[in-house]
Inverse folding.
């Protein structure tokens, strides 16, 4: 059954090809479709196209459907194109002509758009909470191991002294910056496209400001044609945020695999977080982190695919937009699972002690030796040459003291400063405002609004 059928039956092969994976992915949009439709119904009531009794009946019906969505029993029938068709036909079946009025003043184009924005907005808010949890885990590990030193590398060659505190703290700060990318994506997602119809508005006196307020959007996509052009731009911003955090977690997973290797031996993963070999009894493989490394590589490619998918299209709606769900929806599911397992496993990582006592790391203090000479008044370049000569002759001596005191160094991690900055970013996500707005959608029409 199709909302647009006009008496000519489409061949099944065409339906199967054009519907694609929509029925699967649209289950993720069901709650958003109910919320968007409820806001639209309240707006139609306000401008006189739906009666109060009709609107209340719709509200009760939508609450019933929400219960099936939350319980996991909501289904999209095989003969339906998508979730939008499913819900509209369900309304008509239950409420007759009231259901036939629900589409007044909107197109399936802006219906899909508002569903996607509501879905992306919720996903970003959930990710924001998960990122903060992982950030705090990184900070806790940074503080716990701030006195445990390990080699720092450049070009995969031993370079300068580092610490587990500095290492965990670096990834904590990376997550803070990643959160800022998600905040930007959230701002794109938090603009209301409802009322743009098929991209050219409507001749009806709809109230877009009202639906914007009802759905808790910060503002609206103002130009009706832009609402359609924005297809791909919102998704690209989200994909770029995903690519940013994927890059951070990819590098972290690579470090873990390297540091867990017996030739390095910097860390040890608990046995219950490793896998084994069918032939080698001694193996304890870091499969979790190898899979994170592989999955994040794939996540970083999503932004390129979205750019390609939306390139070379003129303004207006095109069916290619549908394919964006095939890229982003599984990517969002993947990043949730990655953040969850990292938040659990990181506190269980064991670090090795006194790593830098090994004589092979003695030259890691060469810069500190240079600075020791500089402190005695020797010009830096002269001190550099003197230490290089000491190393060449085998006369290098590890300095007796090496103090790192500046902000962000191994001796002064400044994690509290970092926590304050990241907390400021997190507070910009309006969790309570959106929750309250969506809750009020389903209050009786005559109830007081807060």
């Amino acid at each position: 059954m199709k909302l647009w059928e006009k008496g000519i039956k489409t061949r099944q092969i065409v339906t199967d090809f054009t519907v694609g994976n929509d029925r699967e992915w649209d289950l993720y949009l069901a709650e958003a479709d109910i919320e968007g439709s409820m806001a639209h119904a309240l707006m139609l009531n306000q401008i006189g196209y739906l009666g109060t009794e009709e609107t209340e009946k719709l509200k009760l019906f939508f609450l019933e459907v929400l219960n099936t969505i939350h319980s996991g029993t909501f289904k999209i029938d095989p003969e339906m194109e998508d979730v939008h068709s499913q819900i509209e036909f369900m309304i008509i079946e239950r409420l007759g002509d009231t259901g036939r009025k629900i589409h007044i003043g909107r197109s399936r184009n802006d219906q899909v758009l508002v569903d996607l924005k509501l879905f992306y907005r919720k996903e970003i808010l959930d990710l924001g909470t998960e990122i903060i949890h992982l950030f705090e885990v990184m900070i806790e590990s940074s503080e716990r191991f701030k006195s445990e030193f390990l080699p720092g590398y450049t070009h995969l060659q031993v370079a300068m002294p580092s610490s587990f505190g500095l290492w965990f703290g670096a990834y904590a700060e990376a997550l803070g910056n990643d959160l800022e990318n998600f905040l930007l994506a959230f701002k794109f997602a938090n603009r209301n496209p409802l009322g743009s119809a098929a991209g050219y508005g409507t001749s009806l006196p709809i109230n877009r400001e009202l639906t914007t307020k009802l759905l808790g959007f910060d503002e609206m996509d103002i130009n009706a044609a832009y609402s359609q052009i924005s297809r791909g731009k919102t998704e690209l911003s989200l994909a770029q945020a995903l690519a940013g955090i994927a890059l951070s977690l990819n590098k972290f997973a690579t470090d873990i695999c390297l540091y867990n290797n017996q030739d390095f031996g910097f860390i040890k993963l608990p046995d219950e977080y490793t896998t084994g070999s069918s032939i080698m009894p001694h193996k304890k493989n870091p499969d979790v982190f190898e899979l994170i490394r592989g999955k994040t590589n794939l996540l970083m490619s999503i932004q390129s695919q979205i750019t390609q998918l939306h390139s070379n299209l003129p303004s207006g709606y095109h069916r290619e937009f549908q394919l964006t769900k095939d890229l982003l929806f599984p990517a969002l599911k993947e990043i949730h699972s990655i953040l969850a397992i990292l938040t659990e496993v990181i506190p269980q990582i064991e670090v090795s002690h006194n790593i830098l006592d090994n004589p092979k790391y003695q030259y890691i203090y060469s810069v500190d030796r240079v600075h020791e000479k500089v402190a005695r008044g020797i010009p830096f370049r002269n001190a550099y040459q003197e230490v290089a000569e000491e190393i060449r002759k085998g006369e290098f001596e590890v300095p007796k003291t090496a103090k790192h005191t500046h902000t962000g160094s191994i001796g002064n991690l400044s994690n509290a400063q970092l926590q304050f900055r990241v907390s400021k970013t997190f507070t910009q996500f309006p969790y309570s405002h959106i929750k309250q707005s969506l809750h009020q959608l389903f209050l009786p029409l005559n109830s007081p609004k807060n």
Observations:
- Residues 111 and 401 are 66 Å apart (CA to CA).
